[in-house]
Each structure stands twice: as structure tokens, then as C-alpha cells.
Amino acid sequence: xxxxxxxxxxxxxxxxxxxxxxxxxxxxxxxxxxxxxxxxxxxxxxxxxxxxxxxxxxxxxxxxxxxxxxxxxxxxxxxxxxxxxxxxxxxxxxxxxxxxxxxxxxxxxxxxxxxxxxxxxxxxxxxxxxxxxxxxxxxxxxxxxxxxxxxxxxxxxxxxxxxxxxxxxxxxxxxxxxxxxxxxxxxxxxxxxxxxxxxxxxxxxxxxxxxxxxxxxxxxxxxxxxxxxxxxxxxxxxxxxxxxxxxxxxxxxxxxxxxxxxxxxxxxxxxxxxxxxxxxxxxxxxxxxxxxxxxxxxxxxxxxxxxxxxxxxxxxxxxxxxxxxxxxxxxxxxxxxxxxxxxxxxxxxxxxxxxxxxxxxxxxxxxxxxxxxxxxxxxxxxxxxxxxxxxxxxxxxxxxxxxxxxxxxxxxxxxxxxxxxxxxxxxxxxxxxxx
Length: 435
Ligand SMILES: *Cc1c(COP(=O)(O)O)cnc(C)c1O
Fold this sequence. Notes:
alpha/beta; Aspartate Aminotransferase, domain 2; Aspartate Aminotransferase, domain 1; 7-stranded mixed β-sheet; 5-stranded mixed β-sheet; 14 helices; 12 strands; globular; binds pyridoxal-5'-phosphate; homocysteine desulfhydrase; PyrdxlP-dep_Trfase_major; homocysteine desulfhydrase activity
């Protein structure tokens, strides 16, 4: 076996000390010479299809093979990697790395405009590894009081006992965020679009605060995806995703990713290695296949959500609609040129409260009533009895979760069909049944 012939472990010399140097040669990857390494300046539609694909030299397969193996034959490159501490760049054991991971990681890194990415077994695995890897005991983290529930629980339940103090703020209030920063602040963790109120914080502003504080800015870009915004271009240091949502796009897998400069991602990768949240090769394949259509799906979901939000804003059965395209307080600083769109999520309050909202959902014939988001199929749920059910009514109203609030993850169905279904269900729930 000669794996150096197909590019694994290429360039390794025993005793190389590059891994200790900040300006080491290895600034992207891990990647083999078989992976398509495309210019980051290509359009996202092109990168989504082609970036990272493993071109199999033996069969000429057009797609990345599934490297369904837990371990790899040891050869000189593997021993060199052990000696150099370069375990991330040579296939040795799948928890450390696997070519199936490398392909999908390169695709995501290319889309986010990053040097490197690490794929994980869930979004929470990526977020937990990132938070632990980029902070130390005695440090301080600033995040939003309405971050994703799993993230909130991690920050609230696990960080204090791990010696990291956390302050929760309104993500749209830059003054409050600046005021929360302390000398020991190491991490700012925010979402490019929040759940369920769809607040879009000013990423450029957050990046300025992080820089002044000497802290790192982590952006969870799950709701917008790199098709709509690339936080690294706006000054963020790390982007994390629940790839379970839009990146996968078909509600058929659980995965996560952290991406950014290689020196940061290497640290996150080492944490993933220790926590054990590696991504299985079969799921890598599903995720890579899903991302090939990301740009197409997001374009349609952007349009469908705007159309649905527009309809809802005109409905007599709807109290309020939340969607960044409708503008709103706190969004003044956003530059339109930074965003291609605002994704497929719409929040709205059914007039008359939770009971009416429940009835409305039961009358829908197309969308599924389910939690999660980002798939090709529309999903609806109520934050009050799902994602945010552990909050008190007062905590909910602080966040803005009013009675009757529905979270609608718009799919790629025909928007006329969707609007008609919503219209009929609203009318039935709010009029017919009240008679
Ligand atoms: C779903 C979600 C997560 C968690 O991802 P999992 O894949 O379920 O672990 C994190 N952040 C956001 C914004 C999410 O929507």
C-alpha cells in the first residue's frame, strides 16, 4: 500500500515541528490531494456542488465514496503523524479523522470562506467542543438570553462548574453587550438569527466588541447558512452550525460543524476528539449530498418565507409577524449587502392565543407539526409547548414569546399551496370553530 501516492500524509517528514508554530505551513484542511480544493472566490452554488469532493483514483466515482471504516492501515505516514502530533492530517482512526469527514468539512469550509472545519455528531457537539476549547477555567463568556435552548443549558448548567462565568444579554443591544465584557472575557457567542423571534444581531458590531475585548466571536449560523450570510467575512472568528437543519436539509440526519481559522479549529478538533462527538462516515455522506443543493434550497426558502410572512402580515387572524425582511426595531444597523436573504423561518402570533394556535396547526394539511427546522418539508411548532416549555410565562414574554406564537419552518413546496393551506387552517381555527 502506498498512500502517499494518493496524497495522504503528503509532505510529512519525521521530526517536523510545524504543529507548534503559529505560522505553520498547514493553513487549511485536513484535505488529501484527492479532494477538490477550489478557489474560495467561486460562487456558493458552485462550491456547494463541487468543493471537497473526493475523486476516487481507482474507480473514477463522481461522488465521494463512503469510507465506512473505523480504522486505517498503519504506514510510515501514520507513524510520522504520531511522532509529529499531526494526527488530524492522516487517516489513522475515524474518531481522529476520516476522508468522508474531510470531504464534507472542506465543502462547508469553502462555503463559509474558512480555512478549516470539523464535522461533529450534532450541533451541540460542535458548540460544546467550541466553548470548551476556546475558553479556560477562570474566564468569562457573553451570550444571549434567548440562544438555542441546548446552548443556553450548556452555558448555564455546565459552564459555572467548569469555571467559566456567563453573562446573558439581549443580542440586539450592543451597549449591553459592551457593558457585559470583563477583562477575563474570552468568548462572545451569538446566533446570526435567533429562535423564535428571528432577531438578526449586528455581526460587524459584535466583532468590533470582541476585538476590543481581545475575545473571540463565535456565531451560530444555523438559521441563515453561508448562502445568506458569511459571518467570518464580517469579523467573526468561528462559525458553528447544527447541520441537522439547513445544511443537511432533509430532516434525515443529526450533525454539526465548527469552522474558521485552522489554529482555532485544530483546538476544537482536539476537544471533539476528547469528548467523542465525531461524525460517522455514513452521515458525512448524507450531509455532503444534502449540501450540494443548499444554494437552491435556500433561495426558494428565502422567497417562500418572505411570501408567507407577507400574507400573514395582512391576515386578520394574525396578531404579529416576525421576519427580518419586515424590518423592525434593532435591525437598523444591518447592511443589506451583507445578506442574501433571511432564510426560511417565520414567526407569527395567531390571534386568540395558544389554544387557537394549536387548533390552527391541527388543520394544516401540508406542513408537519414537528419541532426542528431547515428541511425541504415545512414544519410548524409552538415554542411555548416545545423548545421553550421550561420557561415561565414571564421569561417567555421577556423574550417576546406571546400567546399564540407559531414557529414556521418554510420548506421548498409551492408557496401558493402553502399560503392556501395556512389561509384555510387559520380561517377554520379562528372563525368556523368559534361559531
Ligand atoms: C438545533 C440547533 C442547535 C443544536 O443542534 P443539534 O444538531 O440538535 O445538536 C444549535 N443551535 C441552533 C440555532 C439550532 O437550531
